[in-house]
């Protein structure tokens, strides 16, 4: 998609820090920053966000540098980040943002999804990785899951994960997971959050978090997303669940 560039400075939406274009208080909404150099796409996504009662766009930026600056200035709940930006990779911006604002949730959008990019995103703590040509409904639901701690890997990446599973499984020590840890891991692979997983298994949220921590340690993963990628390679999580 060809389009003119955004201004070099971040664009801030809304008249005050506590009001969005929809009229809802941002403290009751998921506050989202868009980092994308395609003006039309960003404007369409902004409009879509501001029509949702629980979502709002707080601003937009068009580069790694302006994206980092906007995030630190606006403190959004979630950042929607294009993978390819004029001055570098969105993962570079994500790394810098998470180093300074670790509670920020980051969703990467890309026009050419690749397994290597997914692996790198998972390793740095990105919570979702989606193709840019996917449905708007998927993007909006991903943003909602991101805010509450969920994560999503788009089904278009399943074939990539499956193709590489055997190639890499010999390189990763097979983890000694308990039956309950495997159950939690498979629910993680479905994108459910800790609260939903605890309810499904009939255990407390604290107990479920303990299982997640143990799973990450045994798999050598830095995030739940990375754990699911590794588990898929090992055949611990069915590919159709990712």
UniProtKB/TrEMBL annotation:
Keywords: DNA-binding, Phosphoprotein. InterPro entries: CheY-like_superfamily, NreC/VraR/RcsB-like_REC, Sig_transdc_resp-reg_C-effctor, Sig_transdc_resp-reg_receiver, Tscrpt_reg_LuxR_C, WalR-like. Residues 170-235 form the HTH luxR-type domain. Pfam families: GerE, Response_reg. CDD domains: LuxR_C_like, REC_NarL-like. This is Response regulator transcription factor. The lineage of its organism: Bacteria, Bacillati, Actinomycetota, Actinomycetes, Micrococcales. Residues 31-147 form the Response regulatory domain. One of its GO terms (biological process) is regulation of DNA-templated transcription.
């Amino acid at each position: 998609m060809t389009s003119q560039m955004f201004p070099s400075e971040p664009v801030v939406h809304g008249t005050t820090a506590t009001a969005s274009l929809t009229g809802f208080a941002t403290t009751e909404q998921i506050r989202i920053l868009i980092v994308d150099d395609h003006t039309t796409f960003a404007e369409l996504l902004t409009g879509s966000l501001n029509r949702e009662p629980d979502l709002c766009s707080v601003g937009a930026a068009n580069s790694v540098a302006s994206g980092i600056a906007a995030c630190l200035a606006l403190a959004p709940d979630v950042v929607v980040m294009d993978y390819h930006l004029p001055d570098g990779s969105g993962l570079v911006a994500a790394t810098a943002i998470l180093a300074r604002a670790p509670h920020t949730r980051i969703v990467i959008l890309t026009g050419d999804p690749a397994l290597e990019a997914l692996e790198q995103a998972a390793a740095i703590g990105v919570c979702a990785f989606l193709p840019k040509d996917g449905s708007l409904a998927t993007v909006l639901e991903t943003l909602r899951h991101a805010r509450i701690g969920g994560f999503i890997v788009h089904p278009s990446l399943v074939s990539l994960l499956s193709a590489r599973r055997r190639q890499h499984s010999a390189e990763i020590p097979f983890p000694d997971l308990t039956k309950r840890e495997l159950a939690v891991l498979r629910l993680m692979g479905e994108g459910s959050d800790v609260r939903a997983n605890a309810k499904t298994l009939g255990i407390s949220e604290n107990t479920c978090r303990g299982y997640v921590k143990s799973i990450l340690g045994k798999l050598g993963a830095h995030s739940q997303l990375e754990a699911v990628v590794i588990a898929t390679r090992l055949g611990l999580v069915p590919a159709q669940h990712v």
